[in-house]
Amino acid sequence: MFASAKEILAKAKAEKYAVGAFNVSNMEIAQGVVMAAVEKRSPLILQITESAMKYAGDKELAKIVRTVIDERSEDVPVGINLDHGKTLDLVKKAIDLGFSSVMIDGSRLTFQENKNLTKSVVDYSRQKNIPVQAELGIVPYLGELNTDQTDWSTLMTDPDKAKDFVDYTGVDFLAVAIGNAHGFFREAEVFDWARLKTINEKLGIPLVLHGASDCSVDKISKSIENGVACFNVDTDIRLAFMGQLTKMVDSKVSITDPRKIMEAVREAVKKKVVEKINIFGSSHKA
């Protein structure tokens, strides 16, 4: 059942569980994620990045993902989110393609530039009844910073600035930085729980944690206790996909039907998503 992220995340925050937002770039990944949602009766979000659109074709990928939701999700709420949109033009494209939420990422801009960009996106998206996620603070990527000399205090979301940011922009969800990191960048050994608690108390809106692939169960649990209603997962999906693919294909491969290979890959994706759903506590919350 195609659904709005605002409804999905409001319920998660109120009932103190979280949903996964899983990045997709082809049909098999989308099917595997939605199959897991149905098996576990869990709401979730499928995410598409600009790079995924460039790879698969924006219209083609949007139609594939929406069709998978319509045909496979039954009555389980599933949304489509633009992940890490950088411009208003890209946001407009995503909305025209039928996404049910968008993220504008101005986190590498100055604070005021981020506010202004996010406000322009919120003003436009409100006209279309589309909720908006923004990011404040730096959630680093591998190669962006030196992992051995990371000064996390300079990257984390400032609670007072977050309050100002949300009041000014009217954003629906905020992605925060508390020591979390994207991809293979080594996250902080200990997250700043006091900071997260303060942000949650000041804002009162669903918070999002990016880079959740390698978050421990304990970190996931404490994040949910302090207002995180959504975890972004990309790397773990890629690893599940490629891990199964490499098992099926080698120099002596005897399988000539790609459907047999991709069926196993899809199942590996589904298994990983089921694992994440169990950790996030969203099972049977549909």
What does this structure look like?
This protein is an alpha/beta fold. The chain has one domain (5-280): Aldolase class I (TIM Barrel). The protein has eleven helices and eight strands. Strands 1-2-3-4-5-6-7-8 form an eight-stranded parallel beta barrel, surrounded by ten helices. Strand 5 (132-136), helix 7 (159-169) and strand 6 form a beta-alpha-beta unit. Helix 2 (27-40) runs parallel beside helix 4 (58-72), helix 6 (111-127) packs parallel to helix 7 (159-169) and helix 7 runs parallel beside helix 8. The longest helix is centred in the last third of the chain and has 23 residues, at 258-280. The radius of gyration is 18 Å and the shape is globular. The model has no long low-confidence stretch (mean pLDDT 94).
In brief:
By secondary structure, the protein is of the alpha/beta class. It has helices at residues 5-15, 27-40, 50-56, 58-72, 88-96, 111-127, 159-169, 193-203, 217-225, 235-248, 258-280; strands at residues 19-23, 44-49, 78-85, 101-104, 132-136, 173-176, 207-209, 228-233.
Write a concise keyword list for the protein shown above.
286 residues; eight-stranded parallel barrel; alpha/beta; 14% strand
Which helices and strands, and how do they pair?
Elements: H1 5-15, E1 19-23, H2 27-40, E2 44-49, H3 50-56, H4 58-72, E3 78-85, H5 88-96, E4 101-104, H6 111-127, E5 132-136, H7 159-169, E6 173-176, H8 193-203, E7 207-209, H9 217-225, E8 228-233, H10 235-248, H11 258-280
Parallel strand pairs: 1-2, 1-8, 2-3, 3-4, 4-5, 5-6, 6-7, 7-8
Helix pairs in contact: 2-4, 2-11, 3-4, 5-6, 6-7, 7-8, 10-11
